[in-house]
Amino acid sequence: MDDAFKQSALAYHRSPTHRLAPAVAQAAIEAGVARRPIADMAAYRAQLAARRLQAFPHPTN
Predict the structure, then answer these.
(1) 58 by DSSP, 3-state: which?
(2) In a domain, 19, yes or no
(3) Backbone phi, then psi, for 57, in 5-degree steps?
(4) Does the residue 60 lie in any domain?
(5) Are 6 and 59 in contact (CB under 8 A)?
(6) Do 12 and 53 form a contact (C-beta atoms < 8 A)?
């Protein structure tokens, strides 16, 4: 794994994106504008985390 990829993956893991998406989804649900309300927010967060780790595996030292 090259250093540039390690740095970008590490920056992604440190970003607040994984907290932002569920918050936006929850706000849309509460505002009544969500196209598909999420019944199980914990499962949604777990699914996002799994996709994030698949796309950006945690870099090893």
Answers:
(1) coil
(2) yes
(3) -60, 145
(4) no
(5) yes
(6) no
Tokens of 17: 């994106």
Backbone angles phi, psi at 15, to 5 degrees: -75, 155
DSSP 6-51: HHHHHHHHHSTHHHHHHHHHHHHHHHT--SS--S-HHHHHHHHHHH
How far CA 53 is from CA of 26, 46, 49, in Å, comes to 22, 11, 6
Amino acid at 49: A
Are residues 56 and 13 in contact, defined by beta-carbon separation less than 8 angstroms?
yes
Write out the chain's pLDDT in tens, 61 residues: 566 656 565 555 555 667 788 899 999 999 999 999 899 999 998 888 888 777 766 655 4
Residue at 61 is within a domain: no
